[in-house]
Design goal:
The complex is a heterodimer of chains A (109) and B (1229). With 109 residues, chain A is of the alpha+beta class. Chain A has 4 helices and 3 strands, in the order H-E-H-H-E-E-H. The longest helix of chain A is centred in the last third of the chain and has 27 residues. In chain B, strand 28 and strand 29 form a beta hairpin. Classes of the chains: A alpha+beta (109), B alpha+beta (1229). Chains A and B meet through helix 2, helix 3 and strand 3 of A and helix 1, helix 2 and helix 4 of B.
Chain lengths: 109, 1229
């Protein structure tokens, strides 16, 4: 079986946006959260998480700010921008269309 | 975007943020792990491991920053500039090569662009067409003009044309200026420039009124004439000049435009030409004097226009059968003006463009080759960068950045070259096309150059870069470029073969053109060109209005000139051979008694008019009858002279004298009075049929003159002009040229094309020679190890040189073979540019092959000689041998006992202080095999005080490869204040990059207490016993083969070795190379020599020491040597011993505890690349051989990597077999 953590880039972007929709969060938290909600099926490779965060920030979909973490450390918190929220809706719709199509194909075979 | 721009400025902040963020992540992960029960430090390690490659992730993040891509580019460019500047020679050669290639193409493209690609500088120039009437029957396809009647008919009936105008050329005589001036005049319809879409630069266009009968005469000046004769006077419009007998007013000046069919001085409307406006001419449907230009209606092709006009032609033929005899089958042809302007130039231009393209191909191949070589040398650098984290794409981008920088720099210099050559090219193009003036370096040309530079940069950058798929780790591990190099070498050899093939084709092209030019120059035109001045006198038609007055003035001019000192004879004629009017008129005639039935083509001939002395002056001999005399005048009966060829054609063996011919269907019969020899009108064509009429009988307006002089004809011009002015001061005389010049200008297009192609071919040859030399030099430096071994073993230098040359010759031979095939196809394309020679001309092919071969050989020879540092005499002799293949074998390079001049003549004492000062012959010192030069008596004294300190170290052996390889006396490096020699440029480069690793670790004397020594001795004694009692051994001999890895262009090979040992002190080590023969190194108590197939030479001390150390790696010898007083051993643990032999490195021997025999030996020693590292030799496969256990397998590793070339598998071994003493004796040469 191929590496489970090898997420498609678009999927990772979607997951990050989805995670941040709940509220601002730092990078480590995002990786933990994605792992959690996907019940350990998706393991986010840090090798792709931080570049993805930087990319999303460059695109203006997320914003980053320094804050204090739950254990009193300086951490960089990411939050969704307005543009990011729109993007999330669009990507979610896309994803559902895609996932729906895959599901239908799987059901038929 | 704004964010991106901001991030560009905030780079340091971004970095800090990234660091902090990564640190935070790892801290959090660590905490989590600690919570999971791990100890803190393990938790942290696990966190870091989970994160992965921190540097890599950071780099990926940085890649998303905009600042990054800009930075990368700047970095690449700066790094590129630095590396390129570090190798100025390489950079210069590449830039110059590129500049030549791009310059040649830019120059030719600027011509193509100006002449073929640019739109005509007329409005919607593609709609302009040239019309021509044709008589297509028989051989009379002569492109007739139109008569005024026909112009009117076509103009009014054509539905596909939006305008149709006429043109014919005339001359007028402009008076009122210091000299009467002949003015070349285009007589045109009033709408001429309107139809062409040309607006005057000054003044106005012609109007319809200007063309009305009796309208005041007006002129429009051409731009060049305005510049030339009036200095560009801005007030020229409105000025009036007398031309012939009428005043003419300037109404306009044309812009600089190409003029077709020829450059005119002035233009005037048809009404101002006395001939064209003559009512009889206007009424005569066969007065076909005018050329017709037209503009097609939008969207109409020339073909559609042609079919439209053909319908009209049919109508006219029916309506006027007299004017269009059915025998002549009249038709109309239409061709685009654009095509007419350039059709003469196109074939030459296409050939030149292809030639330049080939040159660029060669340039690309050559530069790609240089880059491949450089890349191999840079392998380590690239591998280090890869190991430090540069991705493959990043490296590729770096390489492409560099090659593009080179190409663009080359392009810039090339542009400069093109600009310098532009004037020359314009002058060249002028001989073929009126559009030459449009050739400039403009924006499209600049874009072309830039595009071509970038493209070639990417192409030649990509060839080597893509070829470099290789494991960076492997490169680092074995520190060896050689393994990759064999693949690279194939690429390089292919490139060179391609270069040779293309150069061959270009050289063939140039050779054929040259031979063709030589053939042209050696043509005998049938007359003599020496000492003849020619000139043109177009008589004033308004003054000399009839035959009689014209004949009279010609006669007066003749008589006046004949009396002139220096003049031998004078002649007037209508034309003369080689004149650029194409030989004057061509007309049809009939012969008395041989009527031509209607519908059959009548005989045709070139017509010329000649004064009595014409034939004598130009040197055409009389064959039969008589020449013209002054008695053949206007009143006397009509006579003609015919050429020999014509006489033979129509009268065969009969006598043509007194026969009669007519040009006007019998209205007037002319009697043939003489036959003269043939003369060529055009150099490249056989002489045609010619009929000469007496000019003093017929009169003639437009005359050419020939003056045979006793002095240099070029000096007579002014004298002739003054003499003629006495007869008629208002009569201009011009076009003074010697007949030599006329002939030269007839050859000029051919000569210019030949020189251009020749220049390109020479360029190609030079670049190819450099390419071949480069490849050979490179492969020599690659194979220096092999050569070093061979030469150390006594190979004659000539032999090594021959091997090197063979490689170059091989490439050239393949290249030539391919070139022959290519040339046989491609030369068909230039067949129509050739004269008197076949495109497959065998002598050309042979000579070109030889030239290319010799040049290539010299190109190979230079680097080969340098690398092998061979006596030039020996090398030259070798070249001769190769040249006379088949005679060879007689000359083996002799060993010269003369000491070699060392260190490029630099003072060694100063060199150790880091100063490069040339020494002088008078302060020279010979030491060993080297001769040193000193700059002063002081440094010489200093040297003599301590030669060991200042002379080359390591006894002149290669500091990188060790004693086995001789150093090149002129390849040196200074390290730590001492001078070392190196065997090859590669060695020098590697050594200088990191000298320290090529020095043996200082040998530490192995100290052993008696107890330790005794313990060691016991273990060794047991080993000797375990090996079957080595001490009884009297002789030992083994035979093996080993693999020599591929090197340079040499494939992997087997080398057979034999090792003979007459215990205790005599050794013979034999090597048999498959392509070289057997070499034996023999060392005995009293002698040490190398025996070669061709002779013997002594071994020098360092070589003997090196060989002995090699021999003592054999476990049999090593164990047996324990009794020697130069053997020390210490026992380290029960089965591990340290051994030192002959003050060499300390070796660690491991004993196999189960068998008690040596299992391995390890020590610090040289690897295959010359640097020091851990060498381990493992002994295995012990077999009982005559009671002695011999390890049949001895495998060597260097720093853990297998070294196949130093690993041995025995084929057989013998013990205690009597050995012939002769094997250890020096053969008597």
């Amino acid at each position: 079986m191929a590496d489970r953590s090898d997420l498609l880039q678009g999927t990772l972007d979607l997951l990050i946006l989805r995670t941040l929709a709940v509220g601002p969060m730092h990078g480590w938290g995002i990786s933990q959260r994605i792992q959690q909600i996907s019940a350990d099926v998706l393991r986010v490779n840090q090798g792709s998480l931080y570049p993805a965060l930087s990319r999303l920030e460059q695109q203006g979909w997320i914003d980053a700010e320094w804050g204090v973490s739950e254990n009193n450390r300086q951490a960089r918190f990411y939050s969704l921008t307005k543009k990011g929220r729109r993007q999330l809706q669009e990507e979610t719709a896309n994803w559902e269309r895609f996932a729906g199509a895959v599901a239908r194909i799987l059901e038929q075979t | 975007m704004l964010r991106k721009l901001r991030s560009l400025i905030r780079r340091p902040e971004l970095e800090r943020t990234l660091d902090a963020e990564v640190r935070f992540h790892i801290d959090m992960e660590t905490d989590k792990n600690v919570r999971g029960g791990m100890p803190r430090d393990q938790a942290r390690r696990a966190a870091v491991a989970a994160f992965g490659n921190v540097g890599g992730v950071k780099d990926d993040v940085r890649d998303t920053w905009l600042v990054r891509s800009v930075e990368t580019l700047i970095q690449d460019v700066r790094y590129g500039a630095r590396t390129l500047l570090k190798a100025p020679g390489f950079t210069l050669v590449v830039i110059l090569t590129m500049a030549l290639g791009i310059g040649a193409n830019t120059a030719i493209f600027s011509v193509v662009n100006g002449v073929l690609l640019k739109p005509l500088p007329y409005e919607r120039g593609d709609e302009l067409v040239v019309l021509r009437q044709q008589r297509t029957r028989g051989d009379a396809d002569d492109g007739l003009g139109f008569s005024p009647k026909e112009m009117d008919d076509y103009r009014s009936q054509a539905s596909t044309l939006s305008g149709m105008v006429e043109f014919h050329d005339m001359w007028f005589i402009l008076l009122g200026r210091p000299e009467p001036e002949r003015v070349q005049t285009g007589v045109v319809s009033a709408g001429f420039f309107h139809v062409l879409g040309v607006k005057p630069l000054l003044g106005r266009n012609f109007r319809d009124d200007d063309e009305k009968h009796g309208a005041p005469a007006v002129l429009i000046l051409s731009f060049p004439y305005w510049q030339r004769s009036f200095g560009g006077d801005p007030n020229i419009v409105g000025q009036t000049f007398r031309m012939n007998d009428r005043p003419h007013t300037v109404v306009g000046v044309l812009p600089p435009i190409p003029q077709f069919p020829a450059e005119m001085d002035v233009y005037m409307p048809t009404s101002a030409c006395p001939f064209r406006s003559n009512p009889r001419a206007i009424e005569n449907r066969q007065f076909r004097l005018m050329r017709a230009f037209a503009r097609t209606k939008p969207g109409v092709t020339p073909e559609q226009a042609a079919s439209d006009l053909t319908v009209i032609a049919q109508r006219l033929k029916t309506a006027y059968p007299d004017a269009y005899p059915p025998a002549d089958d009249f038709g109309v042809a239409v061709s685009a003006l654009r095509q007419q302007l350039t059709q003469q130039f196109k074939p030459t231009l296409v050939v030149l463009l292809a030639t330049a393209g080939f040159v660029l191909l060669i340039v690309c191949a050559s530069v790609a080759n240089l880059l491949v070589a450089r890349l191999v040398r840079r392998n380590r650098e690239l591998a280090v960068r890869a190991a430090l984290g540069a991705g493959r794409t990043r490296l590729l981008r770096q390489l492409l950045t560099e090659s593009t920088m080179l190409a663009v720099a080359g392009g810039a210099v090339g542009l400069l070259f093109a600009m310098l050559g532009l004037d020359l090219l314009v002058a060249f193009a002028e001989r073929f096309t009126p559009r030459a003036a449009e050739i400039t370096i403009d924006t499209p040309v600049l874009l072309f150059t830039l595009g071509m530079s970038v493209l070639t940069g990417l192409v030649f950058g990509a060839i080597p870069a893509l070829g470099s798929r290789q494991d960076a780790l492997a490169t680092l591990r074995d520190g060896n470029g050689g393994r990759i190099a064999s693949g690279k070498h194939a690429v390089r050899a292919t490139l060179v073969v391609a270069q040779v093939a293309v150069s061959f084709m270009l050289l063939i092209g140039a050779g054929l053109m040259l031979r063709s030019l030589m053939a042209l120059q050696s043509i005998n035109p049938g007359f003599s060109v020496e000492n003849i001045l020619t000139m043109r006198i177009d008589l004033n038609f308004s003054k000399y209005t009839n035959q009689a007055s014209r004949a009279a003035v010609i006669n007066r001019l003749l008589e006046r000139l004949e009396t002139e000192p220096g003049v031998t004879s004078v002649a007037a004629s209508a034309s003369f051979p080689l004149n650029d009017d194409g030989g004057g008129f061509n007309g049809s005639f009939e012969i008395e008694g041989k009527p031509v039935p209607d519908g059959q083509p009548r005989p045709r001939a070139n017509l010329n008019l000649a004064s009595p002395d014409y034939f004598k002056t130009i040197g055409i001999p009389l064959r039969n009858g008589r020449l013209f005399t002054k008695q053949d005048h206007v009143e006397s009966p009509g006579v003609v002279i015919v050429s020999e060829r014509l006489a033979r054609r129509y009268w065969k063996d009969e006598d043509p004298i007194d026969r009669k011919i007519t040009f006007n269907r019998g209205q007037q019969w002319l009697t043939i009075v003489g036959v003269v020899a043939d003369a060529r009108n055009v150099l490249t064509e056989e002489a045609g049929d010619v009929i000469y009429g007496p000019i003093l009988q017929t009169g003639q307006l437009s005359t050419t003159w020939l003056i045979r002089t006793a002095v240099d004809p070029a000096t007579m011009t002014q004298q002739v002009r003054t003499a003629l002015r006495e007869i008629d001061p208002e009569q201009p005389v011009d076009r003074f040229r010697t007949l030599e010049q006329v002939r030269a200008s007839a050859l000029a297009p051919s000569r210019l094309t030949t020189s251009l192609i020749g220049i390109f071919a020479a360029l190609a040859l030079t670049i190819t020679a450099i390419g071949i030399g480069g490849v050979v030099a490179f492969s020599v430096s690659e194979r220096v190890q092999e050569f070093g071994v061979r030469m150390a073993l006594g190979a004659q230098r000539g032999e090594v040189l021959r091997m090197v040359l063979k490689q170059g010759v091989g490439m050239v031979a393949i290249g030539i073979a391919l070139g022959v095939v290519g040339a046989l196809t491609l030369t068909q394309l230039i067949a129509n540019l050739l004269f008197g020679i076949e495109p497959t001309d065998i002598p050309t092919f042979i000579v070109v092959s030889l030239v290319l071969f010799v040049v290539a050989l010299v190109a190979c020879f230079l680097p080969a000689r340098r690398a092998a540092s061979v006596d030039p005499l020996v090398a030259l002799r070798t070249v001769c041998v190769l040249l006379c293949i088949g005679l060879g074998g007689a000359t083996a390079g002799a060993q010269t006992p003369v000491p070699a001049e060392a260190l490029e003549g630099l003072d060694p004492v100063l060199l150790t202080q880091g100063k490069e000062v040339a020494g002088q012959d008078k302060f020279a010192v010979v030491q060993g095999r080297l001769k040193y030069f000193f700059s002063s008596a002081e440094t010489k004294a200093e040297f003599e005080k301590d030669p060991v300190r200042y002379a080359v170290q390591l006894e002149g052996t290669c500091a990188r490869m060790g004693p086995g390889v001789a150093g090149n006396p002129n390849l040196y490096a200074v390290h730590d204040g001492r001078i070392y020699l190196l065997g090859s440029p590669t060695c020098k480069e590697r050594f200088e990059a990191a000298p320290a690793k090529y020095f043996a670790p200082a040998p530490k004397a192995l100290e052993a207490t008696p107890v330790e020594a005794k313990a060691a001795r016991e273990v060794l004694d047991r080993a000797a016993a375990a090996m079957g009692g080595l001490d009884r051994l009297t002789t030992y001999e083994e035979r093996a083969s080993r693999t020599i890895p591929a090197q340079g262009d040499m494939a992997e090979r087997e080398m057979k070795t034999a090792f003979a040992w007459a215990v205790p002190h005599r050794l013979r080590m034999e090597m048999t190379f498959p392509d070289f023969g057997t070499v034996a190194n023999v060392i005995t108590d009293s002698d040490a020599f190398t025996a070669l197939p061709k002779g013997v030479r002594s071994l020098e001390a360092p070589q003997v020491r090196d060989l002995m150390r090699q021999a003592f790696l054999h476990p049999l010898l090593l164990v047996r040597a324990r009794e020697s007083d130069r053997f020390r051993a210490v026992l380290r643990s029960p089965n591990v011993l340290d051994i030192q032999m002959l003050d060499g490195p300390v070796m660690t021997m491991r004993i196999d505890p189960s068998s008690g025999r040596p299992a391995s030996v390890s020590y610090r020693g040289r690897g295959p690349e010359g640097d020091f590292g851990d060498v381990v030799i493992t002994f295995s496969d012990y077999r009982d051989t005559g009671g002695v256990a011999v390890p049949f397998r001895r495998a060597t590793t260097f720093n853990g990597e297998a070294v196949p070339s130093q690993s041995v598998t025995l084929q057989s071994a013998d013990v205690d077999k009597p050995m012939d003493d002769a094997r250890f004796k020096r053969p008597s040469s």
